[in-house]
Amino acid sequence: MEISGYKIEKTIGEGGMATAYLAVQESLGRLAVLKVLNTNTRDTKENVERFLNEGRIVASLNHPHIITIYDIGIAEDFMFISMEYIEGGDLRTRLRSPISVKESIEIIKKICSGLDAAHRKGIVHRDVKPGNILFERNGEPLLTDFGIAKRLTMDQDLTSTGVFLGSPNYMAPEQAEDGPIDGRADIYSLGVILYEMLAGEKPYKSESVIDVIVQHKQAPVPILPEEHKVYQPLLNLMMAKKRKDRFRDASSVIHFIHHLEQLESEKSQQNPDTQELVKQKNQVADEVFNSHIRQQKKPSKWLTYTLMTLLTLTASAFAFVSYKYVYKPNKENSLDIIHAEEANLDSMVELVSVPMAGSAPIKNSHPGEVAEVTKALGWLARKSLEEYRLTAPPKDNAYYYYVRLLEINPDNRSARQGLLSIADRFAFLAEKELAENNYKSAAGYINIGLQINPQNRTLKELQLLTSTGQRNILDSVQELFKSFWK
Q: What is the model's pLDDT at position 22?
């Protein structure tokens, strides 16, 4: 067999659809892998289309952890794809020896980043397994073999023959059923790989392929060895049997891993006494403020405006001083929030309907699994609240995590209180912006906060005071406060 522009060196693999050859691309003198559609299947329309689809899909992805496509074409009666040659072997081979925890987690993060790029283009790999994770000489992992991948938006389902696609040992439960498949199937498969790297064996084993598939559908999420139990919540969220209980997308997996790493780092640096003092101080401050609000009587309309003006001016001064001398937000985590005047405030919050009492909680789920998911979401929500990641970045913020908790349990009191706390923090941010005469940003924070809690009294008062009629008085008094504190 000859393909113009390539010198074939040897056969390096053969599958049901194609044969892979090691070749030299003569124009550039570089090694390449040629995947050539087998002659006995080239006249099958579905196989031809699937083969070409692989080339188009991978060629459209430009990512450091996805294999690079050089060329796709037809030579004589042969259809071929030319792609980069990777010399470092695959993960299947590496699994023959123990892999360190650090390396395992790095592999998961990097392959997740590649999957995220694919999923964002509407592409689901559908066959994530150790044999499809290759390594460059420097150890960087690459995802390959998109031969059974498909675009979510394609009208024609290339798997309509009724044969499931994917490797049974790594296949998500829904892949054995009729219906659409999304990126969460790839997350499940990567979760199986995570378990295998940490535990040294596959989670479900049997001599029967059907039995393995049934275990993936019905058996509980496997338990990691005791020394790796810190990663059990991560595994539970990746390998949840119901895809609605898994991570929503691959980027969320990466964020969760970062949180776990940060938590482990903080555990070695935390001062328990200091943490408890801060907690007690915040509780006392909240109680004093709430008590003050409860004791207020309903005054006349004129007095209401006067009191609200004085209250806001005082709060603005306090906010200005607090922000300047006390509150020092983490710049990396809080950039989108603190510099909101430079951002499109309308795009900062991805609001969804908050489920009320009576919404359906997760059904037919293992109690331990639900508990782990709830625990993990609760920690992420509190951490996001502390770091002022209130409604941004998307899918990794306090609002998102609290709403997910309410989807699991509509009566979760801590989640409902958490949503109210988000609104309180937007009130603080609005006060800070008012102290610096940034009315546009203040109005944006007020608007977002009121969408979360329309009954937040402070936000309602601030909304009134940011109206045009109140600004002149506010500007004058704020200038006095600012000059005083310089």
A: 93
